[in-house]
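FAQ: What does the model actually see?

It sees only this:
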Amino acid sequence: MSPFTILPVLLPLIGGILMLMARPAGIDTQRILSLILTSLLVGVSLVSFQLANSDIYQVVLLGNWQAPFGIVIVLDRLSALMLLLTSLLALGALWYAIRTDTDKHGQHFHVLFQLQLFGLNGAFMTGDVFNLFVFFEVLLIASYGLLLHGGGRLRTRAGLHYVVINLVGSTLFLFAVGTLYGILGTLNIADMAVAVRNVSEADQGIVATAAVLLLVVFGIKAAMFPLYLWLPGAYAYTSAPVAALFAIMTKVGLYAIIRVHGTIFGEAAGDLAFVHIEWVLLLGLITLALAALGVLAARALRRQVAYLILASVATLMIAIGINNEAALAASLYYLIHSTMIGAAMFLIADVIMKGRGIYSDSFTKAIPIDRPIVVGSVFMLLGIALTGMPPLSGFFGKVMILHSALNHPWFAAILSVVLIAGLLMIIAVVRSGSLLFYSVQKEEGQKTSPLNKSAFVAVFLLMLVSPLMVLFAKPLTDITSQIAGQLFNGQAYIDAVLSTVPYGDNSK
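And it is asked to produce this:
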């Protein structure tokens, strides 16, 4: 075990405490500290990624109790990828928040930002279901504060909707966890995977019900049909850097499905094997169809971007539902793309909104924005990437997902929904671009807000991820294939967690 293993969880927790203590020193001190800590987190995540690349599971037994009795932190290839993705995204969102003074619009922005990272990283590394619940609550509490940061009628209304549905989700989570503990006698994910193989026939129905209940809970986090209605409002009305950071929030739900359901209800689970998988695929297809209609019907850019994020989540659910190693590798490639490009799209929407003044981001004729060629070009590239048009990363991700589905019995449905939804989204984004950049009116005395070049750097760097993912597609797909291979070898995860002995115990 490397001492670096626990740092991605501890660093943002310490950061949150430091931010709170630094508050009397002023916002500038908090900004510098927050940037330093988030940059450090990128470095720590890179080291963690390198550690996980050795194919050796890094297992930390907190309290020095052997699993399944103590709290277990596990670093593998998937969790390392999610840590790195989160830290890079956070750095971009934080930079934009500081350069646009978004962090000055309310209290404790930087404290909440660090606690959000603490909850996210903890969820990606925990080895038991109860602590997954705990980290979910931490990240949700921080997200409530960030979502409402700055106030406003629409933001408050969307925030209340978000809070209520997540409270319902938390309650259902406890019901599911209690049921599984009552039958299996453990909440350690590796130990649950072993216990579920020996469940009696009489208890299989109860365990299957709890598995579906857990899927509902993770579906709320991932914004799965019919539990997605909170997302368009919440993401559209919060501040741009918070919406950008939240691009990873829906992926937490998908990560939990891959980790919890994939490990406990994997191939070795007997009659309960893959009890969830057809539901994930079916609901993914429905979510994608409705998300595409939402993109088409949106009357403002931020709401349209929120539906585009929903469409990307649905595409990932379809890939998970295809349930083979190639599909999972493709889904991880698409996950990196959709998270970074979705975040950049929220930021460019904010740039456009500020440039249009009183016309905001509505699809109506407005004054021309400052530097329309630069902003319009970036918007066009992001639109191409996010809707899955060639030659950018969204296209490659979708092609890989569809290729992995060639032998699936639902292939015709998958192909039809993905292609038709993609076409609808392309039409909608092209129409939006035309309205925003070509349908302009010049008014005497109306001054255009100058482009914030320093903040725009964050948009540009996030956008660069897409062409880089195309240029380095081969090594990147090699990495995602290795991660998928490790995930499909669930026994290796179980052995690594259950065979790790406490420090100083040489009896084994």
